[in-house]
Write a structure and sequence with these properties.
By secondary structure, the protein is of the alpha+beta class. The chain is 47% helix and 17% strand. Among the domains are: 47 residues, Helicase, Ruva Protein, domain 3; 95 residues, 2-Layer Sandwich (Tetrahydropterin Synthase, Chain A), CATH 3.30.479. Strand 4 and strand 5 form a beta hairpin. Helix 3 crosses helix 7 and helix 9 packs across helix 10.
Length: 293
């Protein structure tokens, strides 16, 4: 049997993050072969991963990646904020974003089954398992979006680092003739969206039932306040206008210059450019922290 030296145990521990006794056991089982020992640990830690599947992964990070006129945004989840702050975890999120841009895919499952761009010879799922082996927490590739703006389009992305990478935005622009102006506009819009959190791009995107609900709320409140019947239509109009200004991107006041709407900023910064769409991710949307389970 090969000699299991302290230096070899340390090397395996450095490469995997596994405990000393686990590393020693893996090296003994693999007769000192480091690669086989890593496989041993992955199998062993994989069992732990299965037992952890019921635990909520509500923490994590948002990552983006741009190549030409294609951008991707992904959300990678962990169980704790401690792991979400780990450099290996953040690097994995960026790898996933790059994977999505280069290869595309219809679902997270499809992406995970692909050959990894960053670790040739292994799958993306195996890369997640590698990071799990080191960090020992459930890791979930929750969602992604890939945007290809085409020849006359442009894309921008922004991740809010002060929020520990928990908010990310991608923006697609169309009818671009000046790439430099479009890039400046796209970055400004992405930062605005991160801060202002609009729900819709334009008035046309607001569902009719949502507008009807806001109108009904305004009418009911006006009646409860015993406002004159003749004044109610104006009250409803004002309420709906304010709703648009709060939730519609192009109607919102610009974060940079609150005296101007976003639509005005778009026209001044890059005349002729249109805002096609945006996506804003916040970590943990729709998930409950483990403490609430």
């Amino acid at each position: 049997m090969a000699e299991i030296t302290a230096s070899k145990v340390k090397e395996l521990r450095d490469r995997t993050g596994a405990g000393m006794m686990d590393c020693k056991e893996a090296l003994q089982a693999s007769e000192g072969d480091l690669d086989e020992a890593i496989v041993f640990l992955r199998k062993k830690m994989g069992n732990k991963l299965e037992r952890r599947e019921g635990r909520s992964a509500a923490e994590g990070v948002i990552a983006t990646y741009i190549a030409g006129n294609v951008v991707a945004i992904v959300e990678l989840n962990s169980e704790t904020d401690f792991v979400a702050r780990n450099d290996d975890f953040k690097a994995l999120a960026r790898e996933l974003a790059q994977q999505v841009v280069v290869n595309g895919g219809d679902s997270t499952e499809a992406i995970l089954a692909q050959d990894s761009l960053n670790a040739p010879g292994t799958t993306v799922q195996a890369r997640l398992q590698d990071v799990f082996t080191k960090l020992r927490e459930n890791i979930v590739f929750k969602r992604f979006e890939r945007v290809d703006a085409g020849e006359n389009g442009a894309v921008s992305a922004y991740v809010h680092v002060p929020a520990n990478d928990k908010i990310g935005v991608v923006v697609e622009l169309g009818d671009v003739t000046d790439a430099t102006a479009a890039q400046a506009l796209g970055k400004e819009l992405a930062m605005h969206i991160a801060a202002a959190s609009p729900r819709y791009l334009s008035r046309a995107d607001v569902p009719a039932e949502v507008v009807a609900q806001e109108s009904d709320i305004a009418a009911t409140q006006a009646k409860n306040d015993e406002r004159p019947e003749a004044a109610i239509p104006k009250i409803i109009e004002g309420r709906v206008k304010k709703f648009y200004e709060e939730t519609v991107l192009l109607e919102q006041a610009s974060v940079r210059d609150p005296k101007k709407s976003v639509s005005q900023v778009v026209k001044e910064t890059a005349p002729g450019v249109t805002v096609r769409r945006f996506t804003r991710y916040t970590v943990g949307e729709g998930a409950k922290p483990a403490s609430e389970e």
